[in-house]
Write a structure and sequence with these properties.
globular; transmembrane; membrane; HDC-like; Membrane protein
């Protein structure tokens, strides 16, 4: 297949997803629609490496992830990041719900080995899936090694629409409070406090570079500074690896917040550099590239355990996150939504959240208000589950599996 043929086909799928999402006002997520179309494509005429043929190999996707996550950090403030302790507690409670229900109810329906293999991929990403797949293979459980990958590939089909529904309900509730004056977002409180000092300043130029003539603030200068921050996050992760494992992507988010607060980066430098759309496009294709492993034969053989485990896990996640969310004063919709990030992580958490916000309002101030309310917890939750907790669980559960 020619490169432009592959690229055009994939762009057509992404556009169809946008159309359906827009028509249904985000009740049906574009990510869900695209995932279905990709599966159909792989089962019919798509070459297995169509995403790479189109020009987005995994190395490019990794680069885009570094830049995008650092860019996402500029959306947050130190104060907003500090406020996310509730998100972390709720997210962890959702994971506990998955583990508890699957080890109790799930163990009665399926055997313990199946549950042990399935839990880490269900609350994480590709790393935990590979750890459990290799552990199952080492234990001589070939079908379960496939199940670990299959759950990672297919869990988004449950997570995408549920997240969209929860965020839409939460967004509608908060929009009513905002319009009636019952709620003021954190970013508006901060901007009100600093309005006098910043009223004459150009917010598209970061504070540390406002003395530099505007003609030198080019798209390349913005991407260069963004790359420097991402590079620092990468090397700090490497330096720390000898005594503690910290994902460079978690550090990218954190360093993005600091760089924006200090005035080294502007808000959303990728958007200012007219590069944000392409970066999201590349990562979207990288997500769907994982669906090439979901063959019809694999689905037929493992359909029942896969569906059963995902359903039981999601029920456990909802029960525990709703209870803890209620205790912490967070709505059950928002609590469930942040827990659901375990089923897909970044960048799907950003894409779905942004999609829902755009479907609820066209007013820029309302979009900013909803973004400040829903985006930080969704991003933080996605990193907590996929990059940290799932890998820890995979290490524990793989050891248990091999000892049985």
């Amino acid at each position: 297949m020619a490169q432009m043929t592959a690229f055009t086909l994939l762009m057509g799928i992404l556009y169809i997803g946008d159309i359906i999402s827009s028509k249904t006002k985000a009740w049906v997520s574009s990510v869900f629609v695209c995932a279905v179309l990709f599966v159909v494509g792989y089962w019919t005429f798509f070459p297995e490496n169509i995403v790479e043929i189109a020009g987005i190999p995994s190395v490019v996707a990794t680069l885009l992830m570094y830049l995008l996550i650092t860019n996402m950090g500029t959306l947050l403030s130190i104060k907003e990041l500090g406020n996310q302790w509730k998100t972390i507690v709720i997210t962890l409670s959702g994971i506990v719900g998955i583990v508890v229900l699957l080890l109790t109810v799930g163990s009665f329906i399926f055997d313990l080995k199946t549950v042990l293999v399935a839990v880490p991929p269900l609350v994480g990403g590709v790393v935990s899936s590979l750890i459990m797949s290799e552990a199952a293979q080492a234990a001589g459980l070939t079908s379960l090694s496939v199940l670990a990958i299959l759950i990672y590939v297919m869990q988004g089909f449950a997570g995408y629409p549920l997240t969209s529904i929860m965020l839409k309900k939460e967004g509608q509730r908060m929009l009513e409070k905002y319009r009636s004056g019952q709620w003021q977002p954190v970013h508006e409180q901060e901007s009100t406090a600093s309005k006098q000092s910043e009223i004459l300043e150009d917010e598209t130029i970061p504070k540390l570079f406002r003395a530099v003539p505007k003609r030198y603030h080019t798209d390349f200068s913005r991407i260069f500074r963004l790359a420097l921050v991402a590079l620092l996050a990468y090397y700090v992760s490497v330096w720390c690896s000898s005594f503690v494992s910290i994902s460079p992507f978690v550090l990218c988010l954190f360093f993005g917040v600091i760089a924006s607060t200090l005035g080294f980066l502007e808000k959303q430098p990728l958007k200012e550099a007219n590069s944000f759309g392409f970066a999201i496009l590349g990562l979207m294709l990288f997500i769907f590239d994982g669906l090439k492993k979901a063959t019809p034969e694999m689905l037929e053989e493992l359909l029942l355990p896969m569906v059963g485990i995902i359903v039981i896990g999601v029920v456990g996640m909802y029960l525990f996150s709703a209870i803890v969310g209620r205790l912490l004063g967070v709505s059950k919709e928002m609590a469930f939504a942040v827990s659901l990030t375990a089923l897909y992580g970044f960048p799907a958490d950003y894409i779905i959240t942004n999609e829902v916000i755009q479907s609820l309002t066209e007013d820029e101030k309302e979009i900013e208000a909803l973004t400040s309310h829903m985006m930080p917890p969704m991003l933080v939750a996605g990193f907590i589950t996929v990059t940290i907790v799932s890998v820890i669980l995979a290490g524990i559960f793989s050891s248990i599996l091999l000892s049985l």
